[in-house]
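Quiz preparation item.
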């Protein structure tokens, strides 16, 4: 995955033609909604849950690309 040669950027606010379905627990959904409300209330950012998810994916994938084995994703998936 390293060396792809481009900065990873989330798609932001635009029309998206691709779709995936992700199942989350009630607690995870509440955490996501809480994050959205914090972003709006405390930071003045009016974003939807999809935007929050796309940003989070972008951050985690960039970390994986940059740090590989030491990335937060690898460590969490390994239970460390």
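Solution:
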């Amino acid at each position: 995955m390293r060396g792809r040669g481009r900065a990873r950027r989330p798609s932001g606010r635009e029309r998206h033609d691709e779709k995936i379905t992700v199942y989350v627990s009630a607690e995870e959904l509440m955490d996501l909604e809480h994050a959205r409300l914090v972003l709006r209330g405390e930071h003045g950012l009016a974003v939807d849950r999809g935007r929050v998810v796309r940003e989070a994916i972008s951050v985690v994938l960039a970390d994986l690309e940059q740090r590989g084995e030491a990335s937060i994703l690898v460590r969490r998936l390994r239970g460390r």
